[in-house]
Amino acid sequence: MALSITSHTGHFRDGAPVGQQELRGPLYRRTMPESPTDPPEFDWLYGKDASTGRPPEPEDHEQTRVIPRSTPAAEPVARPAQPSYAPAPARPAAAPKRGAGLPKLPRRPRPPILRILLLFLSFRFLFLLVIAWLAFLVAVPVLAWNKVDSVELAPAGARPAEQPGTTYLLVGSDSREGLSAAERSRLKTGGDVGQRTDTIMLLHTGDGPPLLLSLPRDSIVEVPGRGRTKINAAFAFGGADLLAQTIEQNTGVRIDHYVEIGFAGFVKAVDAVGGIEICPSRRMNDPKAGLNIKAGCQPADGAVALGYARSRHSDPALGDITRAKHQREVVAAIGAKVKSPWTVLNPFRYKALNDAATASLRVSNGTGVLAMAQFARAMTQVNGTDGLTCSMPIRDLAVNWDRERALALLKFIKEDRTADIPKKLCLPTGLQP
Description:
- 33% of the residues lie in helices and 15% in strands.
- By secondary structure, the chain is α+β, with helices and mostly antiparallel strands.
- The longest helix is centred in the first third of the chain and has 34 residues, at 112-145.
């Protein structure tokens, strides 16, 4: 069936215009045919006027609204482009955990007896470890001590009375024992030509700070049976006994223990602590001591430290006075390294140090492990801060002792009052400023 509707351009039937009559009435009307030949397709609905042959007009009709002409669509208003957000890629689904979805069973508490047992075993292991370490710390020096040689110290003549505190006579001998021919050549020690000493010191310990006092080897003193001569001649003539007798009679200080260490032990001790620091005030070039170093603080191994402590030709002005000062500096530096916690915590260093300390070591009879432990502890304190380090007061470079100042200093030692020693009596060179 062909239909037609009325628009602003006319009637359309099957998409083609067929008339200009507008649709009227409250409802859209079908357009009647324009031509008499058009079939009266809607007579059955509207009826027919006999005079016109057309459907009658409604008496009270309302003009149908005209469909407004469509206007061209307005161009769309440009809107700012909205940022496009790409959807985040979906995470791959995590693999279900083993046992997921299963109800969690309550954790069975560990039996108290098991926890107590584990705690006991842990403490027992720690306790055994501490005991083993303490046993090691004790066993190493005891075993090393068995290698130490002893010497009978029996000074002749009248000896000073017992005094408070403890005084050690420390001697650094030029013994080559323990050195190979190659080491003697490297260290410039020469051949084995008897016993001499370049180092003579008194170490006093007691209620006050420990005191390390140098007795310059060229000091002019009265040697029993030898007259007035250098103090180190007493060691060459009569060994430890005559040297101890000479010191006691010239100072009035009683010697309780005797400690002697040779070149080999000295060098090994410095190397065992990983070397020390020395601080020469000037360049030192002494072929006789195998020494050639610059001025200023610098590291030194055993060989350099030995040359530094032995040399006196590099400082013609002070000679033996400077050497004694360097010896105390080296002793204090070794002590500072020894008291480092690393010395005890490192078993290899601890054993090497004990072996080195007992190499070429001689002590007097009656000087046991406890006395040497006290000696070692004091040697770690004579650094000018925890302890005192001085030289015997002298009045000239011929190394004659200054009697007045020397007696005053020695009185403090004999009375064990090192804490009261004034600075004017404890000087690095012994010379009065």
